[in-house]
Design a protein that fits this description.
Layout lengths: L10 H21 L9 H14 L3 E2 L16 E4 L2 E3 L13 E10 L2 E10 L5 H19 L5 E2 H14 L3 E2 L5 E3 L6 E5 L11 E2 L4 E4 L2 E3 L5 E3 L7 E3 L5 E3 L2 E5 L4 E3 L14
The structure holds 2-amino-4-trifluoromethylsulfanyl-butyric acid (MF3) and cobalt (II) ion (CO) (2 copies).
Length: about 270
């Protein structure tokens, strides 16, 4: 059965979406200079929490229901072999690490969601490559669709690029519709499905693309001790990039972006 995709076609709704994503992108701008060797992930989390509250908004991850326990922090910080949902702690970042910082904010009831992977100091060639491939996969996924496109076109573009670079695409976690809820229809897999998924993405659809790319195989394991941290099963590196996107009559609008941060075509 095909589930209903919420559509945002009034200017008021689109402005709500744009403002939430805009704030989220400004929060990432604020945090970016702090994501350096020596900073702990709980310090980055604390800065995100206070900046968000100081502006009158709400961190969406804090207390978000999970399979075992609610999420205990405001942001996700996923280092090296952590694929996603890494929980901030007292470990300082070290030269050679790659770390994904994933932020989601609620502004006036609307959600904005994005993530960026940072290279700390001098990193290995393999680490630099997986960050580059994940970044390029995000933009290839964005370019793959226009108004009236369908979700399989996104996964096809991402999967073909990653496999062509000798890397693999995580299957258990996918992009998602977003709006007045954190996660809603449509699901956005980062690889094409076996049975073609022709779910259309008409104007008014708001969704994320957030490919997780592994240097080894796609399999993941969840940490039983905290109920959240997801790692690669083989211990290989994983990188991720995410934007919130609005399909308009003209094409895809990237909502979680400011003038700062790496742009399409960036070389790491
Ligand atoms: N921000 C993540 C996403 O991209 C979800 C994190 S859920 C949390 O969908 F509870 F771990 F925060
Ligand atoms: Co997301
Ligand atoms: Co996210």
């Amino acid at each position: 059965m095909r589930r209903r995709i919420p559509l945002f076609n009034t200017e008021a709704e689109r402005d709500g979406l744009r403002q939430a994503s805009r704030f989220n992108a400004e929060l990432l701008d604020f945090l970016r200079p702090q994501v350096v060797a020596g900073t702990t992930t709980q310090e980055i989390d604390r800065l995100a929490y206070s900046y968000t509250l100081d502006h009158g908004h709400t961190p969406a991850c804090l207390g978000y229901p999970g399979p075992v326990v609610p999420y205990p922090k405001s942001i996700c910080t996923s280092i090296n072999d952590v694929v996603c949902h890494g929980v901030p702690d007292d470990r300082p970042l070290e030269s050679g690490d790659i770390i994904n910082v994933d932020l989601t904010t609620i502004v006036d009831g609307w959600f904005g969601d994005q993530s960026e992977t940072f290279l700390i100091g001098e990193v290995s060639d393999e680490a630099r490559k997986v960050v580059q491939v994940a970044f390029d996969c995000l933009y290839l996924g964005i370019q793959a669709i226009g108004p009236g496109g369908h979700v399989d076109e996104i996964g096809r573009a991402i999967y073909d690029h990653a496999r062509g670079q000798g890397m693999d695409v995580v299957r258990e976690y996918q992009g998602h519709g977003i709006g007045r809820k954190f996660h809603q229809e449509p699901g956005i897999p980062h690889l094409p499905s076996r049975t073609p998924n022709r779910t259309a993405i008409p104007p008014g659809t708001c969704f994320t693309i957030e490919p997780m790319i592994n240097t080894g195989t796609w399999h993941t394991v969840m940490d039983e001790s905290d109920g959240w941290t997801v790692r690669t099963r083989d211990g290989g590196l994983s990188a991720q990039w995410e934007h919130t996107l609005l399909m308009t009559e003209e094409g895809v609008e990237i909502l979680t972006r400011t003038e700062n941060g790496p742009r399409e075509g960036h070389r790491f």
